[in-house]
Amino acid sequence: MSTIIYKEESYKIIGACMRVHSKLGPGFLESVYSEALEVEFKKDDIPYSKEKKLTVYYGDQPLNKYFRADFVCYDSIIVELKATNYTVEANKSQTLNNIKAAKYKLGLLVNFGMPSLKYYRLVN
Questions:
Q1: Per residue in 31-90, pLDDT tens?
Q2: What's the whole-model pTM score?
Q3: What order do you get walking across the sheet with 77-82 strand by strand?
Q4: Which of 27, 85, 96, 122 is the most buried (most CB within 10 A)?
């Protein structure tokens, strides 16, 4: 039986995302969901960094290039937000590449732009 990585932590993060989506619904810009999610993270005592600059590694070699994660929660989970009508494979691939390149174990891709919140757990 496999263990779910960061089960409790990701459950809390997704719960916060669901509350934001149920209050706002689809149709806003990503920045609106990001700000609302920050409010929920604070209420739930979820430790986070917003737009955290993460080093990209090539093997063990850190590169000069970096990317900004929408959120990093619990110093271990990258949370990427979208606000589009659909989630494309490229969104999942990008998030997976980011968690691999930054040497994280878990990424959550969350799309607020659909009638129902859509999220993906991406494991490195």
A1: 999 999 999 999 999 999 999 999 888 888 999 988 899 999 999 999 999 999 988 899
A2: 0.92
A3: 48-58, 61-73, 77-82, 106-111, 118-123
A4: 122
Q: How far is CA 53 from CA 20, 64, 70, 84, 113, in A?
A: 24, 12, 9, 23, 25
In whole angstroms, give the CA distance from residue 40 to residue 20: 8
Nearest partner of 81 among 66, 63, 68, 100, judged by Cα: 68
Q: With residue 20 as reference, give the H or E element that holds it.
A: helix 7-24
Report all structural domains of the chain as residue ranges with CATH numbers, in order of start. 7-123 (3.90.320.10)
Burial of residue 29, with CB atoms counted within 10 A of its CB: 0-12 exposed, 13-18 middle, 19 or more buried? exposed
